[in-house]
Request: fold
Amino acid sequence: MATFEKGDAFEEVKLIQQALGVAVDGRFGQQTLAAVKAWQTKRGAKATGQVDPDMLLALGLIEQVILENGDSGELVRHVQAELRLEVDGDYGDDTETAVRAYQKKNRLKATGSADAATLKAMGLLGGGQRKVEAAPAPVTKSAAPIVVPKSRVEPPAPVAASPSASASTGAITSWAYQLADIKPADIANLPVDLAVIDYAADGDAATAFTRADTIAMKQRPGGGTKKLISYMSIGEAEDYRYYWQRAWGQAATRPPWLDALNPDWEGNYKVRYWDPAWQAIIFGGPDAYLDRIIAAGFDGVYLDIVDAFEYWQDVKPERPSADKDMIAFVTRLAKYARVKRADFMIIPQNGEALLEDAGYRAVISAQAKEDIFYGQDGDGKANKKAAVEECLDCLAHARDAGLPILAVEYLKDNKKISDAQAKLANAGCAAYFGPRALDDVPEGQFKG
Reply:
């Protein structure tokens, strides 16, 4: 059963009732209907009163998830991306045929319906291992603002150096960036192609967003979906994150990979990011940072402090290979993520000098950059011409490779915004203007 609704009487209804905290009798009656609608409304989703596969997944009822011909939604899109089909979110005859072929190739029961076993084999539910049989190449809609990447990166195959592999993420014409005071309903109402947010409302495990939250936030007003990307710092450790241990704050009990406090950002510590112990915190197990983000249903990660290599080469010059180490770190992270989800986006912020490396360009999905024209010497202050030219020269590597460039300028003055907007458009950048605190998305700069 793909969808449950009022009038149904199945054993699965009991599990839904338990998850919603209502009386458990196995009958989908008025009380269950009201609880379902309340759950959907709270998460900014359309209150249909039907429990579809996306909601089952959000409730943790993985074994009850099954996608059938006629279903639609975010999970269907992921299946289509995995099978390299046209990604439209509608489970039709073509999707059913492709699922059946996938099941036959991977020795699963060939029903044409994507049950939990099939979804796990695809790596979409966790606990599964992606099969080696490749699916046909995808066909993408030209009208879609963001196209799912065609390249699949799986170890032990080497990462392709071809720019076309990176460029396949397609155009991003509008985006938004908010890391504090995040309200799922507000994010859902943004008419953008891509939104970058923190993985948690308050940055900690207690307020981490669930799959239900991410599904709701991916919606666009008027229909369609956006890409939802999670912020993740990989060049510094943050003492308010779930992984932080109190003893690390003391020099005597600090792990060898943890360095000094960043004087400009409270609670942020420099890390020797090439150390396996730090990388194990970032990815590689169910409790790792990246793994939590993937499990929550985000479409990718926005990697911050990628430019940490400059600290280790210039400020504290103890690591001559720091730039190469960062490239290797991002490459390993990307490979790992895409084994779990082939279309997972990797978007580094800053560190644009690394774009000279073709292998690095091949594994990232876009390049983000702060303060291209304003802000390097203080908010609202124009950057020096030489600094702007150097930055744009680096970003040209991304543009020439077909990678989207996401530019953020922290400006309030309308005249300066207009000036930066014209210059960024000329440089081929998708621009976002907001407060440096990243605690709000100003209205008026997006067209629905």
In short: Residues 126-170 have pLDDT under 50 and may be disordered. The radius of gyration is 22 Å.
